[in-house]
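Dear colleagues,

For the upcoming journal club I promised to circulate an example of a predicted protein-ligand complex. I picked one with S-adenosylmethionine because it came up in last month's discussion. The inputs are reproduced below in full, followed by the predicted structure.
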Amino acid sequence: MNFPKANSFPTSVMRERSMGPNPLKLCEELLAYGDIPASSVVLDLGSGAGLTSALLARECGLTVYAADLWSDPSDNMRFFEGLGLTNRQVVPLKADATALPFATGVFDSVVSVDSYNYFGRDPEYLGEHLLPLVKRGGELLLAIPGMVRDCHDNLPACLLASWTPEQLDYMHDMDWWRTNIAQTDGVDILDMREMACTREAWADWIACDNEYAAGDRAAVEAGALDHLNTIAVRLRRR
Ligand SMILES: C[S@@+](CC[C@H](N)C(=O)[O-])C[C@H]1O[C@@H](n2cnc3c(N)ncnc32)[C@H](O)[C@@H]1O
């Protein structure tokens, strides 16, 4: 695949700030499946160290709220400023996805890359905490790390080479996510599909020089990506 937006960031920056499979490539592919109008106000939910927020603001001209629980918003702001982005373009904040400090209907769209599976597995999450913040007709684009087919009853050794059964419980297949999301009123599932860039995004991740990437290498090298995918979900608030 071609990734002009993702590849506009130096590899060194991607490697320093990724917290999982290349979020820039996942984000660029995800955007191609959706329809986020120019100059939308977007919530980047679980934005980590800010890579996807920077892509959305700099490469797409969107106004972005970069909300994340674990990352330091001041560090993210310095990263954005270093790219020439201002607080008119991207606003970082520390926020819990289950207690988002925003008015109802304030966002045109939501993007979430490699994060939704931390909080969205609760089937009540979407309707209670996220959907109300989106305008009617607005889209939510999610890139969720998933399983090709749920195999929690008989986990392959390659997955267990890097992760515990408890960690793998955060990963589910497309049918599981469809059932989870379909329980929410007021949202249409426009599309769900496996993302094409999963292997490439993982290759970029395990080449990173940090202890988390190093820890994931054993599983990937043992064949974990035969069982794992990334699920793109396109939703629209009714
Ligand atoms: C694997 S990292 C991915 C980060 C970033 N999207 C990326 O791809 O580099 C998962 C992110 O989910 C965020 N997260 C987990 N639980 C959260 C919650 N309850 N509210 C907000 N963010 C949460 C963490 O702060 C973390 O940055």
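Two points we might discuss: The mean pLDDT is 98. The first helix runs from residue 11 to 17.

See you all on Thursday,
B. R.
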